[in-house]
Write a structure and sequence with these properties.
Elements: H1 2-45, E1 53-55, H2 60-65, H3 72-78, E2 83-87, E3 93-97, E4 110-113, H4 124-130, E5 135-141, E6 145-149, H5 155-171, H6 194-212, E7 216-224, E8 229-236, H7 244-259, E9 265-268, H8 271-291
Parallel strand pairs: 8-9
Antiparallel strand pairs: 1-2, 2-3, 3-6, 4-5, 5-6, 7-8
Amino acid sequence: MASTSRYLGHRALRSLLSRTAAESLGTQTRPALRGAAAAQTRRFQVASSAGTSSAATERPLLGRNHPRSRSPWLSQQSRSFFIQTEPTPNPNSLKFLPGRPVLPAEHGTGVYFTPNDKEKSQSPLAVALLSLEGVTGVFLGTDYITISKNDEGSWTLMKPVVFGEIMDFFAEGKPVMLAEPVVTDTTILDDDDEVVAMIKELLQERVRPAVQEDGGDIFYRGFDPNTGTVNVQLAGSCVGCPSSTVTLKNGVEKMLMHYIPEVMAVNAVEDEELKEVNQKEVNELEDRLKAAGVPFEP
């Protein structure tokens, strides 16, 4: 009888010890499992899809160079911010997709800014991005931003900085554009003749959508009826792209010449060339006014 009592006592003791150990183990494993699940979730959130790269919102490296005060509200909002990048045909240009609208519809389908543009003040986002070291151009599309850099810049170093600047800008709720443009480059005006109107329509409806798919754009900058030359300005990833000349001649030029017999050539102008073209038009206007006996004051 005594041995039976001792046996039952030992069994009760073992049962008690087992329950205690299980409870202790449970209290230790549950947080660990939660930590593992959280880590797995974090890894899933920052995973990149094939052919693209993404940025989470934590910026430990950027914080050293660009200290910013972060409110709890901004931190909470930025956690769900997700930016992807896409390569373009131009190795010096990269397409950033913030997953939200960028350029308001009333501003057209794209605007391009360089550091020397006076018009860049119309876009606080362009001003912020152009202030970054190595950035030579900013193109704002309907749902993406194309950043162009100089040859010395490295995307490995520049991408985190650009990511952070875009994240902070949208988290603070700033407007992308301040002033509303009266007309765009392809707006058909009352004094445009039939040829110019057709050129603008083809550029807007047929050429521009194809160019914007690669993170670039093309702007109408005038037509010379004497030579049949259409002047255009390339923007975004098209600037300095090795294949842009081929695209311009084999694609844009052939299309315009096919539909509009008056077009003989398409010429891409740079900023300095554009100034010369504008000055030439002013000089021709001055000559016509003088010939008509109208005084001209430049």
